[in-house]
Design a protein that fits this description.
Elements: H1 2-22, E1 25-30, H2 47-58, E2 62-67, H3 70-78, E3 84-88, E4 104-113, E5 131-134, H4 141-150, E6 157-160, H5 165-175, E7 180-184, H6 185-194, E8 201-216, H7 223-240, H8 242-248
Parallel strand pairs: 1-2, 1-3, 5-6, 5-7
Antiparallel strand pairs: 3-8, 4-7, 4-8
Helix pairs in contact: 2-7
Length: 256
């Protein structure tokens, strides 16, 4: 009799778990990094946000997207307070659960004030330059090592943080307080156009592309399931043409 009761209880528990999974609210955090993820209250919240919301909606879930500083987003997701983060490279949070399919392809570039003739030709070319970076971001292995070695030297590295990090760095660049900014080309292009600053800032060097993911908390036992849904959903969105329609709203094309 005890065995029968145990089996029944396990079955009820499993049904309850399945039901709860079907109605999950999946909370994803990130700093505002438009067009990947934008203002959470906007009609255009960012194409990676729309990808996540579309995929999870088809599975019966809803997405709660929250804007916060990047380092906080990673930490809160790592501890399980949130389900995951949007716009992560594998170097940002190597302990997280990553889908097999990336949700974007990014390309970091370096930017200077319009009119300068200096060009980035490698790490040595940053000598005598003040580089603006964002706290908690990873770039290339070489750049990350350079930042770590010089982070306490304000004449070499200026670190911006919080939800206005890019805005702060661009203002410093235009005013001459820093010489170079490293930022994703799509993000910088969107920012400059939105703020009518296309004539104030120019690209002075580029870096290799990198994959971006919607990554999930290492503390949540459902993270593997969520990652699988994203991978499967991205393939379906691409095949159906829905991914193309989402990207077109942001003036972008499929990276594959």
């Amino acid at each position: 009799m005890k065995n029968i009761i145990r089996v029944i209880l396990i079955a009820v528990f499993c049904v309850g778990m399945a039901s709860s999974v079907q109605s999950d609210t999946i909370t994803l955090g990130a700093d505002e990094w438009c067009p990947y993820n934008c203002d959470s209250g906007s009609e255009l919240p960012g194409f990676m946000v729309e990808i996540a919301a579309t995929i999870f909606k088809a599975k019966g879930h809803t997405v709660d997207y929250r804007v916060m500083p990047w380092t906080r987003a990673i930490q809160d997701a790592r501890t399980g307070k949130y389900n995951g983060i949007i716009g992560a490279g594998k170097e940002d949070a190597p302990d997280f659960v990553f889908p097999a399919e990336e949700a974007a392809l990014m390309k970091n570039a370096l930017f200077g004030k319009s009119g300068i003739t200096w060009r980035y030709t490698g790490i040595d070319s940053l000598n005598e330059k003040t580089l603006g970076v964002v706290k908690g971001y990873t770039y290339t292995e070489e750049i990350d090592s350079y930042i770590k070695a010089n982070e306490k030297k304000s004449q070499r590295i200026q670190v911006a943080s919080g939800e206005t990090a890019l805005d702060s760095s661009v203002k410093k660049l235009i005013s001459g307080r820093i010489d170079v900014i490293i930022e994703d080309a799509n993000v910088m292009g969107h920012y400059l156009k939105k703020n009518a600053l296309e004539n104030e800032v120019q690209e002075v060097g580029e870096m290799p592309t990198d994959k971006l993911f919607i990554a999930f908390s290492p503390s949540n036992p459902l993270s593997q399931n969520y990652a699988g849904m994203i991978s499967e959903g991205l393939v379906q969105l691409r095949n159906s043409g829905e991914l193309k329609r989402i990207l077109e709203k942001y003036g972008l094309k499929d990276w594959k």
